[in-house]
Design goal:
Shape: globular
Strand order of the largest sheet: 2-1-3-10-4-11
Radius of gyration: 22 Å
Helix content: 40-55%
Distance between the termini: 60 Å
Oligomer: single chain
CATH superfamily of the largest domain: Bordetella uptake gene, domain 1
CATH topology of the largest domain: D-Maltodextrin-Binding Protein, domain 2
Number of domains: 2
Length: about 325
């Protein structure tokens, strides 16, 4: 039986301090962990830090980036799938983790549809096929010709097994019918460092992880992976201009664990849209070769559902698999 005095006391306290209940319900009322399942220095990390900083400013709480790497993004992604669905663990990830890995790996440790709630896209990034300045080929056509003359002699570095740049490299080899030796690294930064040093001859890299080296002349661009030429590299031809039909435009987006309250998901989507409308975020993204990419929750969910079978076909055609 409820004590009338206690009930009256609780009611009196609530009426006397109405802000107490509101403060408890306000989101966020403590720091938010932003899991990035890729390594520091890569495209996803760069984009996530720009967005996290802006969300911190807008919402008055820290959005702290936490890089949880491994297995091409599967380790961090699976961790978020198991996290408490309260809005205090979110993930900003590349499309590769969510729509490519399920076809590439025998077991990712998560279900991209059942385990997550898509919040919204945040950006697209340019990807480029780059080479050491001393490498003989000057463009995609010359690389293909050289690789056919020297099968198994050209090393192509990537950010690791199962990463997007690994798979794009496999797609290139398959489409062009060439044989290059894949050299996986623990992240984009390590791959670019060895590319500059000449330990590997070529690599597929995102602009955020490579644009500074391109501008300084430490590496050179052979072709653009994206389906259209990039505003930041208008004179660089796409690989598709040499290999008809080749091309992809990678996206990055925010996800939360399935079951996260709908009002929190909606609030995060609105705050992302607000951040992407700000001039400073647009300038910071453009500075690393990225573009803002806004979407509704529904549009993003549709994109994920449509990309899963599309990439499954590409993975199958490339012959790339990881146990």
């Amino acid at each position: 039986m409820i004590c009338p005095r206690r009930t009256l006391l609780a009611l009196a306290l609530t009426l006397a301090t109405p802000g107490l209940v509101l403060a408890q319900d306000k989101y966020p009322n403590k720091p938010v962990t932003v899991v990035v399942p890729q390594s520091a220095g890569g495209a996803n990390d760069t984009i996530a830090r720009v967005i996290a900083q802006k969300l911190s400013e807008q919402l008055g709480q820290s959005f702290v980036v936490d890089n949880r790497t491994g297995a091409g993004g599967n380790v961090g992604t699976a961790a978020v799938a198991r996290a408490k669905a309260d809005g205090y663990t979110v993930m900003i990830t590349a499309d590769s983790s969510m729509v490519i890995n399920p076809s590439l790996y025998a077991n990712t440790g998560f279900d991209p549809i059942k385990d997550f709630e898509p919040v919204g896209t945040v950006a697209t990034a340019g990807y480029v096929l780059v080479a050491n300045p001393n490498f003989a080929a000057r463009n995609t056509a010359e690389l293909i010709a050289l690789a056919k003359q020297q099968p198994g002699k050209i090393n192509i570095g990537s950010a690791g097994n199962g990463t997007l740049n690994h798979l794009i490299g496999e797609m290139l080899s398959k489409t062009a019918s060439i044989d290059m030796v894949h050299v996986p690294y623990k992240g984009s930064a390590a791959a670019v460092t060895d590319l500059v040093a000449g330990q590997v001859q070529v690599s597929v890299q995102s602009l955020p992880s490579s644009i500074a080296f391109i501008r300084s002349g430490k590496i050179k661009v052979l072709g653009v992976v994206n389906q259209k030429r990039l505003p930041s590299l208008p004179d660089a031809p796409t690989i598709g201009e040499t290999l008809k039909g080749f091309g992809a435009t990678p996206w990055y987006g925010m996800f939360v664990p399935a079951g996260t309250p709908k009002h929190i998901v909606a609030q995060l989507n609105a705050e992302i849209a607000k951040a992407l409308d700000s001039k400073d975020v647009q300038e910071r993204l453009a500075g690393v070769g990225c573009e803002p990419y806004k979407s509704t929750q529904e549009q993003f969910a549709t994109l994920v559902r449509e990309d899963l079978p599309r990439w499954a076909k590409i993975v199958k055609a490339s012959g790339a698999t990881i146990d």
